[in-house]
Design a protein that fits this description.
The protein is mainly alpha-helical. It is built from 20 helices and no strands. The N and C termini lie close together (8 Å).
Amino acid sequence: MLKSLMTVSGFTLLSRITGFLRDMLTSYYFGAGTLGDTWVAAFRFPNLFRRVLGEGAFNSAFVPLYSGKLAEEGKGAAFDFASRILVILSLLLSVLCVVSYIFMAPITKALTTGFDAEKLALATDLSRITVSYLFFICLVAALSGVLNSHKKFAAPAFSYVSLNLVFLMGLMGVVPFVDGLQNKVSVMAWCLPIGGFVQLVIVLLSAWRTGIKFVPKVPKLDSDTIKLGLLMGPGLVSAGIQQLNLLVGQWVASFQDGGMSAIFYSDRINQLPLGLIGIAFGVVLLPDITQKLRKKQNKEAQLSLQTGMTMAMLIALPAMLGMMVLAEPIIYGIFKAGEFTAEQAQVAGYALFAFALGSPAYVMSKVLQPAYFAREDTKTPMKFTLVSAVVNSILCGIAFLVLGKGGQLSTGCALATSVAGWVNVSLLLGGLKKSGFLKLSGEFWKRLGKMLVASMVMGAIVWCGAYMLDDILHSDSRWVRIPVLAAVGGAGVVVYFIVAHLTKAMTFAELKAGFKKSS
């Protein structure tokens, strides 16, 4: 498992690095004000549906069914099932893109209530360009699910790197030579569907090289399709509610000028541990647990889940402390340049601190959900995320009433999202314990306590380093700030793993053994 995890995490890290480069250039050209907000709004719309429809509802239902057919009926039946479903998905996505394009003005207005007329018009125009990305990325997500079921993780993970490479080519090769900020941001919008097409080509080539055969099938309403639809229903609601938590925060923050940008850039940093561990484990665990359950290997499936939880917290806890201690220096170091000011960095830094409080919860929820989806239970996570959405909405409303349109409104919204995340993960844990699928040993809790101690030691070291190097971390040159920031963070990582080894939270020998078992 660890080898597969590192394949996904490695490419995810590369994707995050190229994504940060993309965001650094984006913030340089557009800042975190009016123009930055319109780009965030246009970029967010297709990504919202990607996470809800593609990576959320569809894969949570499709991957267990495909993996089950692969384990029980063989490749032929699995390929036939995938072919039929991909045709249906393509038709649905085509209709969705056309309808969204036609009604983009009211959709954008609903998602960005705080925008004035001029800001709304630009966001609508940009969203009409970016909406076609939805078609490509949902097909990419579906094909990635097929490849993951065959334990092919590299190409799907690399496809997200390719998207950022397209953006970087646009930002460095086209944007500098285009006149007018609105024309520059339009170039960014066109990079999204072009990048989506490249992603689709990459996963299709990988499927072909793997020997996966897709033969177009005339769509029909058979038992498999009906079962997929029934499983997708609750999954669609569940994934939608998860995104609603962040969406509500951005919607409320849109009343603060630059608030959406503050949420966006801080969440980009916050998504790093989620992508490296949470999403990576979700990708690896879902087909793994599904196939073990279909083979009646229940104990092995439960062990996979507990191993996933242990490894996830090994990274998530220090990530939380690190982001809290270095919140403002991280935002300042990476994004402060051009149109992105020191004041905007401070506002986004506060939001990052608030998001970091919920980082372990975001990660753990991605690890726990496959235990439900693998058993074809999409209704229970839906109920839990509904509760968390209510909590998030109430807290965002309170933040608006208390903070108004002030500079800390984005922080209040980020904190609400973190609290909602902890509510969700608490319910997921309770549900698995109640069903008897999850029985955490005393050893797990001992390790967790030791990891927390190691994280606190690391946090203290990082804080001291940041305090002593504060002037350099706030240097005018980004290329001075970033290496020093990396050095401070790197020193913290080294300290953490040494303390974790000494306390036996996770020894180097155990990590090495884990990789050998997974190879």
